[in-house]
Hints:
This protein has 17 helices and 22 strands. By secondary structure, the protein is an alpha/beta fold. It has two domains: 233 residues, Rossmann fold (3-Layer(aba) Sandwich); 241 residues, P-loop containing nucleotide triphosphate hydrolases (Rossmann fold, 3-Layer(aba) Sandwich). A hairpin with a 2-residue loop joins strand 21 and strand 22. Helix 4 crosses helix 5 and helix 14 packs parallel to helix 15. The longest helix is centred in the middle third of the chain and has 16 residues. It starts with a strand and ends in a 14-residue tail after the last helix. The mean pLDDT is 88. This is ABC transporter. It holds the Pfam family ABC_tran.
Amino acid sequence: MRLVLRGITKRFGSVVANDSISLTVEPGEIHCLLGENGAGKSTLMNVLYGLYKADEGEIELDGEVQHFTGPGDAMAAGIGMVHQHFMLIPVFTVAENVMLGNETTGFAGSLDLEAASTRVTEISERFGFHVNPDALVEDLPVGVQQRVEIIKALSRDAELLVFDEPTAVLTPQETDELMEIMRQLKEAGKAIVFITHKLREVRAVADRITVIRLGKVVGEAEPTASNAELASMMVGRPVELVVHKDEPELGADALVVKDLRVTDLAGHAQVDGLSFTIRAGEILAVAGVQGNGQTELTEALLGLQDDVTGSIVLDGTELVGRSTRQILDAGVGFIPEDRQVDGLVPGFTIAENLMLNRSFRSPFVKNGNLRLGALREFAAEKLKQYDVRARDIDTLAGNLSGGNQQKVVVARELSRDLRLLVAAQPTRGVDVGSIEFIHKQIVATRDSGIPVLVVSTELDEVVALADRIMVLYRGKVVGIVPADTPRETLGLMMTGERPKDLKDVAS
């Protein structure tokens, strides 16, 4: 299927999200749509998918102009969309999810689940997806859930597939698997639109690249273009893709964790006997495949886990057994791995989100009364200092792009008097311009003498930020090694293997 978009313009009030965008996608081609968060990429694809109606322009498929009134029309025309946030019902099986909206019936009008299961199996075997049609979606890893989304689209004979930031929730290994799936789909003659802001992925899989900035096409590039060239096109200025930091000026042991154990409701140890130390002015980065205890570790440090044993001592104060409020008041800053669930209240304004963990104390509250003037002054200052791109401080957090949402969280946490910063997936789903900014803030925090724990599934990020690296596997420490440890060694450790000649770095 050949797609041609001509002069697509989409406005939301006075905001022009898409400004006369034109592009062509050929059958058997992976066409990457590259741009910062908020550049207009997803809006353009939502127009294509019938979720929005363009104010100007036209959509042409195989030479015929289309007039979609909704996603149903787009799907009927052969367009499938794999959303960043999966459109699956967790308590349904794979077959039931694939059938949704496209139900087939058998005798006496009963749902023909057997036909749906057969269809899932056929597609799975054709593309090597290895998906069990009878498995409950809630029991599947995130990478497999994404394959279910792809199967849904293919089951409806989609010839054009749109992947909207598909790797935002995937581990590096799952990302590589998705890249291979996209190549298989390309070989099968499918046309693919790949929306992303991750340069490594673009260069690995794209045939052609269209760069969008502030709602406009600013140029096209070949996959042979350098990361620096692509990043500059995305943000409109040169971007530092390397984290610059001096040798750490280490202080005393600040955070001392001994024999930490976190147990889930089923009695399984998610964190199993962790012991480590972070010194003042040091970044300890945690590496590992998602699901090996990283989430439980950060939540235990914040008092968000119920069944915790062992010891967490910050500057001589024991944190185990304290409430989350007491831990925050002890000077722990927390950038959570899911900003939309744990970091922000989408229905609150930027200003309200900036005071969330200080909504009961000075300078925002006096004698039980909210000091709106102090809040607005503080919020306006942080909006400018952290380059949060929004109309004003009264903009709802839920209306911000992902990168700007993350900046609000970072601004809130780093504007307090900290004794420890815990940053979990600090740049997940964030564009290169915002990544550069957030990395600088984390290094500046370390340089001010504050201990920092960074948890990331992006190995590039771990290596770039760390003074030391702690590798986790199944809730246990495989080793704590220098930041210049070869990537091959780190990759081996992430599978649970400890090289014989490995030497831990205690401090």
